[in-house]
Amino acid sequence: MGDNPIFHRVPDHPILNLEVAQRALARHRDCGDDCAARRYFLALVPALSQGQRPMDGGDSDDSRWAR
Q1: Model pLDDT, residue 6
Q2: 59, 43 contact by CB (below 8 A)
Q3: Which domain holds residue 18?
Q4: In terms of domain of life, where is this protein from (predicted)?
């Protein structure tokens, strides 16, 4: 599985679950710096563990739904 080039690609869907991201990072721990998936999960795991959300350009207090 690790020899398959598709295994080393960045996922084509967003990973929002910390446990899933940690498992994926563990699967790529022996990969080199040229592995796109490893770089992706190296950046993603700390962001998810800190509870960061993607920026939506708006306030966290969205009053559009209050009526």
Answers
A1: 79
A2: no
A3: 5-53
A4: Bacteria
Question: What's the domain count of the chain?
Answer: 1
pLDDT digits (tens, 9 = 90+) for 29-65: 999 989 999 999 999 999 999 875 555 555 555 555 5
Amino acid code (one letter) for 35: C
End-to-end CA separation in angstroms for the chain: 53
Average pLDDT over residues 21-36: 94
42, part of any domain? yes
Residue 64 domain-assigned (yes or no): no
The tokens of 13 are what?
Answer: 């869907």
Tokens of 58: 């708006």
Question: Is 58 within a domain?
Answer: no
Q: What is the rounded distance in angstroms from the CA atom of residue 63 to the CA atom of residue 51?
A: 22
Domain assignment present for 43: yes
